[in-house]
TrEMBL record, chains A, B, C, D:
The keyword NADP does not apply. Its main location: cytoplasm. Belongs to the adenosylhomocysteinase family. The keyword Hydrolase applies. May play a key role in the regulation of the intracellular concentration of adenosylhomocysteine. GO terms for biological process: L-homocysteine biosynthetic process; one-carbon metabolic process; S-adenosylmethionine cycle. It comes from Halobellus salinus. Pfam families: AdoHcyase, AdoHcyase_NAD. The gene is ahcY. NCBIfam families: ahcY, PRK05476.2-3. It is found in: Cytoplasm. This is Adenosylhomocysteinase.
Length: 427, 427, 427, 427
């Protein structure tokens, strides 16, 4: 299977692809000040010298700047996509042109090639894995347990991936340390809230030519992604409805001023539905049956399992492309339910999708980079299992970002620091 | 010049263009409940029978549904574009296929053809003009004053067009009645505030893959469009800065919680600039000189004169396409200023632009339709000059919309109506 | 009846009242930069020399600074309250101590004394009237038509007052010019939206010790006051419901993202109700019957007629003071409906009420002051009837305010001004 | 010292005080649905039978309903205040009238009596402590270590208290288990964000008669309280400026769209300052020197050490009460800096202050109640130290609240629960 080739060997006009890919990367880099700062540092200090990185991520311009940063830091990198529809071939080609990088990512590959590409990455013998959905961790544990001994550790980007890793760790089946990059404040709050929030809504609006003002926008799930979507939709004058199964999150949404109700009740009044739960079957047949003509259904969670498309297909009497990136399912009584991007992650899989904004990925990838550095420098101090990103790394990236934005802040004075440490001061 | 041909005679594969245009129109119509209701009414009552409409508008899917509605109402329609970059050829072709409609709009035409197309429309001998920027009114007054006698009246869609019509009327040079559709609440508040606000920002985000959270977004002009952009940017967690020359508008922006400052001061701190003034030279050489590397410059006003691109070209040592729809101007010290859509109306002229959202255009076009009906039925009651949309027409459209959205409201009771009319009640 | 005496002759310890009143006035003045600037100008130029002002307004610290400014400008002033519950006796006493001012305003007077006080003001023979609810205009037209000849004009502060004046003018019964201060942007947008919005909600919260987060706040009327209440309630995380009879306003509220519904439907789900319509019987018996236990009912419109308290009393099996400023009406099934401030203007009549914030009154009163100056200087140029505040006066006050806030703005360049005036520029 | 008497022995007209206190309690209870539900449960099951509670809390109407609930559950309760200015004597008297409750709380006591009252509570020999600022825990550890053996555990309400308890535990000096009620989502997010946010701002507005629209509101500290104040101030159209020493929180504020800067820079432009840090010397002499005339300074953190009033007094040439609850410090050049509530917790210590809104305290106190129940039922399972509130307790209270608000939510289906637990599903 290792015979699956790098993209450079698959494209017809690889040169122009590389050039276009490079142009995309430069644009992104212009808006990624954290990576720019870390490029200088990594190029100087070569912290990753001698390491081999196995990566499975969305291969587009922003990720590519992380990949290149890691290569600049001294690593050999092998990478493939983590979603068949999110790869930009030109960017993949631009990366693959770098001597220290081999990219197998290709858009639109079938299931066999998808896994063959992962195999090809694994064949490089990674010492560190960097994942966006834990495909790499899973492939190694399932099919190449022999590699575990030489692996220093890994880093995982997504809510869903971390969730699954924790389950794996709980079962005693995770055999090297993995940083839960997703869970660290610098990632979670910005990437999920602002990144998913803004880009999912902008993608939906620009795929459909519709607006949010006065619309009932139903957000399924009130985790970080869900609250980002809710907040940005309300900020564009939608009337936000939240469907959530966890009572404290539901209460939080209620106290924020949103309507909170079961999905089936929301189904009857919603105009736009965005799923962000990380769970399956969030919108089901009985919900479709309750919906109004012309609704939009989009998923902003990791996998395409949140909207039950099989049930929808069964229910529909006709299906057609109503618009690029929009599939209409027509019900027997003429109502049309419009599904965006085949129910896949809308801000990655829609035809016009660009993924998360560059600046928020800058923060996430800054964390990834320092986590990889940490694994090289102190990987032996971490036991097998899921680890929080060390506080000082998270903080380091925040400081780089504030500095890049020209934001100055105060420091604690000695008296204040002492006060915070003490407990013996009276009223 | 009347020899400029309809689009149907210009395209190679006119059949497939028509089909694609029709698909676009159907998608839009699905989200334009006001036009759907008026289609039924107009088809039934034929209020425009015997009229010839001369139109110059952005020819894309939403406008096309207005055009078709007017034709359904009994009119012959001749139409061309009001901006060389905003025409969708497929939609133009789909319209042109209608027996009652001739469309001359074609994307990317040069100046000569642009005006030749207007001439072709005029050659139909319109009895009513419908404008989006007053090109049609202007062409008739300047070059075909003989037509004025047979013209019942006109309707104008934009802030800029109405502004110029009022100036023309003040000079005694407007020779038939024109409805200021732009100024009527049902148009101004929704189209300008919500339509421009949401679509300009979504277009910028999806053209650049950038986000608004934490950005300094500078909005030039705090009219309806400006306050829409400001409100929706703040709603996506931008720090909004307003530049405005009118003290009361400036104060209003200040009281809303925005930073208000002169443009040159804003230039030094802004990340994204959106002009909405309807005036020229809003961002000038001294502003460019003060700007930071990587800024985005976009125009959401009608004409491409708000950002002084000539001055920017002079200042730049290099210019290149940084990305589709983004032209980078590199200054001597390496700073890159990125202009979107050549400084033209960003939500229409950007490569991925879709124009205003369907629902807000539904409201504007609903007004246009009832205004055209009013001109036929009562045009002789209006003197030459600019007229407000009659209150009852505006209200009629609001009622259709509320009804379509399923929103019920109360009516005044007789006692309440009487109270509101009286003035003799004590404390 | 002219025997009704000034407050200085009615209080026991007038000295300490004056001192306390003066302290209140100084606090307000500290936060009224427009009046501070105009004090200097008026004291210098004496624009009101020789005039006698007859005023009926809420006599509290902020108004008092307007009154004193007018006196500083050279006028003799006679004033009384425009609402029996809004007078602060100490402030009234402090004013009355000024040689140029006679104040008859006293808190809690009965109906007879209320009108006797108005009579006393009229007995001074005003040449200009300044009203907050048109009591003074009405008293003169009804009972002292002989004064009309010597009156230069008037100024009216409130929505309700202007509404009634327009009705009076429409009937041909308004016999001198009155400036509709309420309608001018500088007043309407700030006083109504921000002033009423913030102070009504803060008063309700501090009268009840309740919060808005997660509450259903029902706003009756979506005029300027209503949208202020709605916006500030949503800004405190309420779920806002709007009840409105005018379809365009209703649609505007809907497009803002609020729930819009008939009052009786809102009654069943609301937690807090705020009326802002200026009309009567907005909340009625059938609404009370639908309400939940523990609801709050408050009025932010001018008169105490919006909540039908007679019907509520009839419906209730028990009534008691649940809390200072809160009267509970207990229904037969135990539900308690809590009415604040007896249904009077809650931000003036609640026990802890302070009226509108000082800064927003600063803007309204700045307009009043320059309008009074205008009447002296150009009163003869205005016909009997209701007049808009001249644009340049409104603008003058905005400029003073921006200057006081340290906000700088650009001016139009000559080229820009010329462009705005022209209409002959092409696309 | 145990001779310090209950409030019932200290007041002159104890009967009328009790009646008034009871009226206040009933109003609050009407808006505390969680406590109402728990009252029924506790009265039925008597979970606290045989326990003695030692409490130091803000003794006002809402707390009183918690105290009474605990007594209804079978406990003997001794309580005193945790802040000399936050006690309502009438409520204290109403509590003290309950046979199972002894209240020593009295407003305005001096330092000696404050600690004597704590001693009196300790003299009851508590088996459980309930604190709002850890005074009770501290008194026992410092002066009555012999009690530790019989104490089952404690619960602490505030950020500051928990912070100090953790420091104490880190030093190995905390000798029984204490629940960090403050840190649990159900408390932290609602009480701190919504409770402090809304009530601090409403109290400031109603103490000063000022508004937030267009004001620069400087929030020191971007923890839960700080973000509540920031959010609600922005929601009332303030321009929010955040000063914060922790880079990630600072960045979070920046990404929210707020201005972030060092305090001394904020000092020069702020209109209103609200401290929420829990630390000392947050606003210092050099900040006062930079401030504008008329600024408001308020503290929303636990102790009165955030604004350095000693330094301000030294700097001032005059000090006086500008208004009830507002002390003006006049500088040599005439600038007046206005400190609210002596720099104490403004929403508790201002003359008109009512403390946190009833509904948010309902949530916090619901947690307190079930934590106390948990200590009785399972206290022996918790080691000495600070403990998170068990997840199921937190969730229990959320469910009670949702139920009371009539909010229904979905539950995970079996398939969904299984999916969330699994990790072996592919892409």
């Amino acid at each position: 299977m290792q015979s699956y080739p790098p993209i450079g060997e698959q494209l017809d006009d690889v040169e122009s692809a590389r050039e276009e890919g490079r142009r995309k990367m430069e644009w992104a880099l212009q808006h990624m000040p954290i990576l720019r700062e870390l490029r200088e540092q990594f190029a100087e200090t070569q912290p990753l010298a001698g390491q081999t990185l196995g990566m499975a991520m969305h291969v587009e311009a922003k990720t590519a700047n992380l990949v290149e940063l890691l290569a600049l830091g001294g690593a050999e990198v092998a990478i493939t996509g983590c979603n068949p529809l999110s790869t930009h071939d030109d960017v993949s080609a631009a990366l693959d042109a770098n001597e220290s990088i081999t990219s197998y990512a290709k858009r639109g590959v079938g299931e066999d090639d998808y896994y063959a590409a992962i195999e090809s990455v694994v064949s490089h013998g990674p010492t560190i894995t960097v994942d966006d959905g834990m495909d790499m961790v899973f492939a190694i544990h399932e099919d190449h347990p022999e590699l575990v001994d030489t692996i220093v550790g890994g880093a995982e980007e997504t809510t869903t991936g971390v969730h699954r890793l924790r389950a794996m760790a709980a079962d005693g089946e995770l055999n090297y340390p993995v940083f839960a990059v997703n869970d660290t404040p610098m990632k979670r709050l910005f990437d999920n809230v602002h990144g998913t929030g803004e880009s999912a809504l902008a993608t939906i609006a620009m795929t459909t030519n519709l607006s949010y003002a006065g619309k009932n926008v139903v957000v399924a799930g009130y985790g970080d992604c869900g609250r980002g979507v809710a907040k940005k939709a309300a900020g564009q004058n939608a009337n936000v409805i939240v469907a959530e199964v966890e009572p404290r999150r539901a209460l939080e949404a209620h106290m924020e001023g949103y309507d909170v109700m079961p999905m089936n009740e929301a189904a009857a009044v919603g105009d736009v539905f965005v799923t962000t739960t990380g769970n399956r079957d969030v919108i089901t047949r009985e919900d479709f049956e309750a919906m109004q003509d012309g609704v939009l259904l989009a998923n902003a969670g990791h996998f395409d399992i949140e909207i039950d498309l099989d049930a929808l297909s069964e229910l529909a009497v006709d299906e057609y492309e109503a618009r690029d990136g929009v599939r209409a399912y027509e019900l027997a009584d003429g109502r049309r339910l419009n599904v965006l991007a085949e129910g896949r992650l809308v801000n990655l899989a829609s035809p016009i999708a660009l993924g998360h904004p560059a600046e928020v990925m800058d923060q996430s990838f800054g964390i990834q980079a320092v986590c990889v550095r940490e694994l090289v420098e102190h990987g032996d101090e971490y036991a097998a299992g899921v680890h929080d990103v060390p506080d000082d790394l998270d903080r380091e990236v925040a400081e780089i970002k504030l500095d890049a934005e020209g934001v100055e802040i105060d420091s604690l004075t000695d008296t204040q620091a002492e006060y915070m440490d003490s407990w013996s001061h009276g009223t």
